[in-house]
């Protein structure tokens, strides 16, 4: 392979403009030699360019220059302005400059600058500055400023609740000096003791190392004032000084039981069984204040009452509940049993019992009638204890079919007779009905069924019998014998099991 040699007259290699060659046609090589070894020549040419030239061209990524119309560029430039180090561009104007003088230009002098010392601009700057501030609360989280001048509220209670929340978050005691129909003024009750040198601290003002020290108490500078012009207007904050100069405290007056109950209502609704001790520790960790266990218990009780409802108010709305049931469910039967007050002249009556049988359930039971009913009772918890009596049937899939329920004072013969009489009227049961009842052998239910349905079959629940038997017989041997007897389908099979002659199959 022939090596490339420079031509005569070009002794200096740097004078040859290799970086300007884009092909081999411009190189004055021998045509015969170029035809024989074109690939080798191209390779040698590129290698020599890389070795001898200081500049390299990336031919694959060449970016062409974009043509710029300077006529459109000059439309946005004031050609008469003189710049430092530049000449005036006035001479470059074209003939169309007269037509462009009619363009609308914004006059910045018409806009008020925030750097002016006018009163309106000063207030505007202060308000923007206050809105943009961020402060750290006692928990260490970043919050925006709670209040600012011009902030409005629909009701005074909303503003007072927010002030109480601010007092709890900042751990300061705030009191209301004015609280009427049109004005509300709140100040911080904290004080700072200043000694003679102007340094604040818990100094008593008596003596420090044998020397008398003059000290003065200074009130905290935090203040908020809001007002409204009429009874139907919003409450606006007119004065607000957000700076606290007093020390924080762990005893906050605004941390009341009512205030805490509103904060934990969602938590109690999600977890009603939350322990009081855990709730107390959580509140103390969240707000950084001292909360006693008794206060946490009262807050939880009040929150539970707000979530579940007040029992007294619920009983007062019992008639409205009955009317709503009958309105939404056609054919529903509801009966309320009341007793007279001890005072004969009293116009009110005391609630004792209520019976409810929904119309669709009653209609479905009659359509797929199976002469079988299960009866049972359960205890009620709360400030007004009682018993819930229920009657269920069996549907076509051998599943439980709820039919009727009643709330009574206790599970006795009188209450069971009243419940069964109401149930008999709805289901059209008579003394000679061949229904089958199953129960847990409750002592008040046995005589009630014998008196009302003497021809009915009364069976007992195996599970309840076995639970009672476990108290005396705790071994598993009796369990096997018992379930064998209970599942026997014929009398001979039952007698064999009772005599203990069966064999267990494994």
Summarize the model shown:
It comes from Lactuca saligna. Helices cover 34% and strands 19% of the residues.
Describe this structure in words.
The chain is α+β, with helices and mostly antiparallel strands and 506 residues long. It is built from 17 helices and 18 strands. It has a 7-stranded mixed beta sheet with strand order 12-13-16-15-14-17-18. α8 (276-287) packs across α9 (293-308). The longest helix has 16 residues, at 293-308.
What is the topology?
Elements: H1 31-36, H2 38-52, H3 70-73, H4 119-131, E1 134-136, E2 142-144, E3 152-153, H5 156-170, E4 174-179, E5 183-188, E6 191-194, E7 207-208, E8 211-212, E9 216-219, E10 223-227, E11 235-241, H6 257-263, H7 265-270, H8 276-287, H9 293-308, H10 311-316, H11 318-328, E12 333-340, E13 349-357, H12 359-367, E14 372-380, E15 386-394, E16 400-408, H13 413-427, E17 436-439, H14 445-452, E18 457-460, H15 462-469, H16 476-486, H17 491-499
Helix pairs in contact: 6-9, 8-9, 13-14, 16-17
